[in-house]
Amino acid sequence: MPCIEISLPKVNREIKSALASELTEAFCSSTGHSSEILGLRFFEYEQDSAAMGGQLCDVPGALPYLHMLVYSPRLKRSVKQKVGAALVAAFARGTKQQDWVPVIHISEHPFDNVVVDGKLLTDAYEECAKRSFYYELPKD
Description:
This protein is α/β, with parallel strands linked by helices. Helices cover 33% and strands 26% of the residues. It folds into two domains: 3-109, Macrophage Migration Inhibitory Factor; 111-140, no CATH class. Helix 1 runs antiparallel to helix 2 (77-95).
């Protein structure tokens, strides 16, 4: 089950709703995953509780600390490139802030490292059990 955790300054419900829609569409259209299984979590902060470049983000003119952590099954390099570009564009559309560009970390996992309904994905779903993780991906 893929999911995305997003650190950003406090925003209103309208922006969070736009981000939820935009980021889900961006991730799912880039990877082929179903939108029903993607979870999003917003970690919001006050501007004086984050820093960039050694300065608190509440300094006038300072850009906010923006970070996404994407948990996903293993992806080919070309798909990761597509996901990264799509998420950055979706974030800009959702926030309406073109200069807000998050750093994105992609953390890949094998299907036998995820538990859903008390079972490993490899035990719960035959198609997951058939997929290999510990192999070298081609460079595309």
